[in-house]
Amino acid sequence: MTVKLLDTLELGMEIVNDVEYSDIVDIKLDNANYLLKTFVHEYELRYKTEIKAISSIGERTSWYGAIGGNGQDVGVASETIDFAHLLSGCEDFKIQINDNKTLTIVKHDHDGSNYMNLVLLTNKEVANYYQNEYDYFGLAEYAYELRKQPTTLFGTIIESIEQNTVNIV
Length: 169
Prior knowledge:
With 169 residues, the chain is an alpha+beta fold. Helix content is 38%, strand content 27%. It has 6 helices and 6 strands. It has helices spanning 8-14, 18-47, 83-86, 123-131, 139-145, 156-162, and strands at residues 3-7, 51-61, 73-78, 92-97, 103-109, 112-122. A 6-stranded antiparallel beta sheet has the order 1-4-5-6-2-3, with helices on both faces. A hairpin with a 2-residue loop joins strand 5 and strand 6. The longest helix has 30 residues, at 18-47. The model has no long low-confidence stretch (mean pLDDT 93).
Protein backbone atom coordinates (compact mmCIF):
# COMPACT_ATOMS: atom_id res chain seq x y z
CA MET A 1 0.00 0.00 0.00
CA THR A 2 1.42 3.37 -1.03
CA VAL A 3 1.31 5.88 1.82
CA LYS A 4 1.50 9.60 1.13
CA LEU A 5 3.25 11.45 3.91
CA LEU A 6 2.50 14.77 2.24
CA ASP A 7 0.89 15.78 -1.05
CA THR A 8 0.59 19.54 -1.48
CA LEU A 9 -1.59 19.24 -4.61
CA GLU A 10 -4.22 17.21 -2.76
CA LEU A 11 -3.92 19.36 0.33
CA GLY A 12 -4.34 22.54 -1.74
CA MET A 13 -7.61 21.22 -3.14
CA GLU A 14 -8.90 20.36 0.33
CA ILE A 15 -7.88 23.51 2.19
CA VAL A 16 -8.61 26.94 0.75
CA ASN A 17 -7.37 29.08 3.64
CA ASP A 18 -3.73 29.97 2.86
CA VAL A 19 -2.67 30.27 6.51
CA GLU A 20 -4.23 26.93 7.45
CA TYR A 21 -2.70 25.31 4.34
CA SER A 22 0.76 26.64 5.19
CA ASP A 23 0.47 25.47 8.82
CA ILE A 24 -0.61 21.97 7.79
CA VAL A 25 2.20 21.68 5.22
CA ASP A 26 4.72 22.73 7.90
CA ILE A 27 3.34 20.18 10.38
CA LYS A 28 3.30 17.36 7.83
CA LEU A 29 6.81 18.23 6.65
CA ASP A 30 8.02 18.22 10.27
CA ASN A 31 6.40 14.78 10.76
CA ALA A 32 8.02 13.46 7.57
CA ASN A 33 11.41 14.82 8.66
CA TYR A 34 11.02 13.18 12.07
CA LEU A 35 10.38 9.84 10.35
CA LEU A 36 13.35 10.38 8.03
CA LYS A 37 15.73 11.24 10.88
CA THR A 38 14.50 8.27 12.92
CA PHE A 39 15.05 5.99 9.92
CA VAL A 40 18.55 7.38 9.29
CA HIS A 41 19.45 6.78 12.95
CA GLU A 42 18.18 3.18 12.78
CA TYR A 43 20.04 2.68 9.48
CA GLU A 44 23.28 3.91 11.04
CA LEU A 45 22.88 1.54 13.98
CA ARG A 46 21.99 -1.46 11.80
CA TYR A 47 24.81 -0.99 9.29
CA LYS A 48 27.34 0.58 11.67
CA THR A 49 27.90 3.54 9.37
CA GLU A 50 27.35 7.28 9.39
CA ILE A 51 24.93 8.87 6.93
CA LYS A 52 26.29 12.21 5.81
CA ALA A 53 23.82 13.16 3.07
CA ILE A 54 20.56 12.31 1.37
CA SER A 55 19.80 12.39 -2.31
CA SER A 56 16.78 11.76 -4.46
CA ILE A 57 17.41 10.49 -7.97
CA GLY A 58 14.98 9.68 -10.75
CA GLU A 59 13.42 10.79 -14.00
CA ARG A 60 11.53 13.80 -15.29
CA THR A 61 8.22 13.69 -17.08
CA SER A 62 6.91 16.61 -19.11
CA TRP A 63 3.93 17.04 -21.39
CA TYR A 64 6.13 19.35 -23.47
CA GLY A 65 8.38 16.46 -24.50
CA ALA A 66 12.12 16.88 -24.77
CA ILE A 67 11.98 20.68 -24.52
CA GLY A 68 10.44 20.26 -21.05
CA GLY A 69 13.03 17.66 -20.07
CA ASN A 70 10.85 14.58 -20.57
CA GLY A 71 12.81 11.40 -19.89
CA GLN A 72 15.84 13.20 -18.45
CA ASP A 73 17.63 11.91 -15.35
CA VAL A 74 17.17 14.29 -12.42
CA GLY A 75 18.33 14.51 -8.86
CA VAL A 76 18.98 16.68 -5.85
CA ALA A 77 21.09 16.13 -2.75
CA SER A 78 21.59 17.65 0.66
CA GLU A 79 24.09 17.20 3.44
CA THR A 80 21.28 18.15 5.81
CA ILE A 81 18.89 15.31 6.66
CA ASP A 82 15.83 17.38 5.85
CA PHE A 83 13.26 17.00 3.06
CA ALA A 84 13.00 20.79 2.68
CA HIS A 85 16.49 20.83 1.15
CA LEU A 86 15.38 18.32 -1.50
CA LEU A 87 12.14 20.16 -2.28
CA SER A 88 13.38 23.59 -3.30
CA GLY A 89 12.54 24.89 -6.76
CA CYS A 90 9.12 23.31 -7.18
CA GLU A 91 5.56 24.54 -7.06
CA ASP A 92 4.04 21.45 -5.44
CA PHE A 93 5.42 18.17 -4.14
CA LYS A 94 4.57 14.76 -2.78
CA ILE A 95 6.48 12.53 -0.37
CA GLN A 96 5.32 8.92 -0.40
CA ILE A 97 6.33 5.48 0.80
CA ASN A 98 5.82 2.88 -1.90
CA ASP A 99 4.69 -0.75 -1.75
CA ASN A 100 8.32 -1.87 -2.17
CA LYS A 101 9.31 0.11 0.96
CA THR A 102 11.17 2.84 -0.91
CA LEU A 103 10.49 6.53 -0.52
CA THR A 104 9.66 8.68 -3.54
CA ILE A 105 9.73 12.44 -3.78
CA VAL A 106 7.71 13.97 -6.62
CA LYS A 107 8.39 17.61 -7.44
CA HIS A 108 5.90 19.40 -9.72
CA ASP A 109 6.59 22.58 -11.66
CA HIS A 110 4.88 24.36 -14.54
CA ASP A 111 6.61 22.16 -17.17
CA GLY A 112 6.28 18.71 -15.61
CA SER A 113 7.29 16.53 -12.68
CA ASN A 114 10.43 14.93 -11.26
CA TYR A 115 9.91 11.43 -9.80
CA MET A 116 12.87 10.67 -7.55
CA ASN A 117 13.72 7.92 -5.06
CA LEU A 118 15.54 8.50 -1.77
CA VAL A 119 19.16 7.39 -1.56
CA LEU A 120 21.33 7.63 1.55
CA LEU A 121 25.00 8.57 1.25
CA THR A 122 27.56 7.53 3.85
CA ASN A 123 30.28 9.69 5.31
CA LYS A 124 32.83 7.73 3.24
CA GLU A 125 30.89 8.31 0.00
CA VAL A 126 30.56 12.04 0.65
CA ALA A 127 34.27 12.29 1.51
CA ASN A 128 35.09 10.53 -1.77
CA TYR A 129 32.81 12.96 -3.61
CA TYR A 130 34.74 15.94 -2.20
CA GLN A 131 38.04 14.38 -3.28
CA ASN A 132 36.66 14.27 -6.84
CA GLU A 133 34.03 17.02 -6.78
CA TYR A 134 35.29 18.74 -9.93
CA ASP A 135 34.31 15.64 -11.90
CA TYR A 136 30.61 16.14 -11.07
CA PHE A 137 27.98 18.87 -11.24
CA GLY A 138 27.02 18.08 -7.66
CA LEU A 139 26.47 15.45 -5.01
CA ALA A 140 23.30 14.18 -6.72
CA GLU A 141 25.20 13.41 -9.93
CA TYR A 142 27.85 11.62 -7.87
CA ALA A 143 25.15 9.49 -6.21
CA TYR A 144 23.70 8.75 -9.66
CA GLU A 145 27.10 7.72 -11.00
CA LEU A 146 27.50 5.34 -8.05
CA ARG A 147 24.39 3.58 -9.39
CA LYS A 148 22.97 3.46 -5.90
CA GLN A 149 19.62 1.75 -5.68
CA PRO A 150 16.74 3.40 -3.83
CA THR A 151 17.11 2.92 -0.10
CA THR A 152 14.75 0.29 1.30
CA LEU A 153 13.01 1.48 4.45
CA PHE A 154 12.72 -0.65 7.59
CA GLY A 155 12.23 -0.26 11.33
CA THR A 156 10.08 2.35 13.02
CA ILE A 157 8.91 4.02 9.81
CA ILE A 158 7.55 0.76 8.34
CA GLU A 159 6.20 -0.44 11.69
CA SER A 160 4.32 2.85 12.10
CA ILE A 161 2.73 2.44 8.69
CA GLU A 162 1.86 -1.21 9.22
CA GLN A 163 0.30 -0.38 12.59
CA ASN A 164 -1.40 2.61 10.98
CA THR A 165 0.08 4.95 13.57
CA VAL A 166 1.99 7.28 11.27
CA ASN A 167 0.37 10.71 11.10
CA ILE A 168 -0.56 10.98 7.42
CA VAL A 169 -3.75 13.01 7.79
